[in-house]
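Incident log entry.

Two folding requests arrived from the same account within the same minute. Monitoring flagged them as a possible duplicate submission, but the sequences differ. Recording both here for audit purposes.

Request one:
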Amino acid sequence: KSASPQWREQFDFHYFSDRKDMLDIEVWRKDNKKHEELLGTCHVDITALPTKQTNCLELPLEKHPGSLLMLIAVAPCTGVSISDLCVCPLGDPSERKQISQRYCIKNSFRDIKDVGFLQVKVLKAVDLMAADFSGKSDPFCVLELGNDMLQTHTVYKNLNPEWNKVFTFPIKDIHDVLEVTVFDEDGDKPPDFLGKVAIPLLSV
């Protein structure tokens, strides 16, 4: 019930400079669980923004009254990676030793925002639900930690896919929950949900 809402939410997107990406933003109004109304859209050309600084943008909503105030920073991404099992980032003993020293108890308060790293090895799924008429699925796996999101490649026509990928996330809040969701790729349509697990970091 506000015409001037404040969200104060931060989202991190992993952007690669060789892509010509637009950031698409939609503002929605929700009356109840069933009724939603689009209040406007706006777009930001990421390639046009100066890097390594915070850009304050006031974006008018297209074809609708109102504007959106945002802070957007384009900066080198640290700590986030996707790799194969054979080149696992924390598999090198010397690198593990450096990280252990970086996060030892005596360094706990050196950088409050630098909590640590989470490394997840997504190996495979077993006995997934068949989402296609052929009795198969085209599964891929999405990992979300806070507002960070990474995903595997799609394994086509398979109910027992093997991804064998290693994902590394920087941890910003020890109370975050790692959510791992399996979807079925469905061409231009939204993907079908095949299953999900949630793992609180404090349980690891």
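Request two (distinct sequence, not a duplicate):
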Amino acid sequence: KMDDDDDIPQLSSHTLAALQEFYLEQQQREGMKTSQGFNQYSIGSIEEDWQLSQFWYSDETASCLANEAVVAAGKGGRIACVSAPSVYQKLKEQDGKDFSVCILEYDRRFSVYGEEFIFYDYNYPLNLPENLLPHSFDIVIADPPYLSEECLKKTAETIKYLTKGKILLCTGAIMEEQAAKHLGVKICKFIPKHSRNLANEFRCYVNYASGLN
């Protein structure tokens, strides 16, 4: 009788160790999430999903953009994050400060944020809940998921509907002309960074006197 074990491909000890390390890291991450308590709002509590074209900002960039939004919104201001969840998570870490924030996002995992979450598909830019009144946000921060004029144009409809005036757009450097055309925003000196390096150069654009220059 042949030994059944021969048919089972054996993982090399190196691969096995790497796998175990991976699972251990994953468990530690999950463990951290549950033990932190406050953690549900921290960056990385929802992992980025590349299939949804999601790329999180570095911690520093997310903080910088969140702080800019708070200053721009002013006391008691309302901030909308359109497809910019890592900025939203940074804003949530400042919970209790004098501003309110909504997240418009295609990724339904963000529904954990309750009423602040609004399901958003840029293909239907004005398909928004009735209680989301036009021009009710002091600033809108948006990061359209794709570097295409169509995506920017549709997201721009949403931004213009939501904002009282101020816009902070994050998108590729190659979108500069379209950003000016559809939203009247100009490029800033501040260079946003991502937690993983993207192939496309990324920039911020604003239509007001921001602290990002």
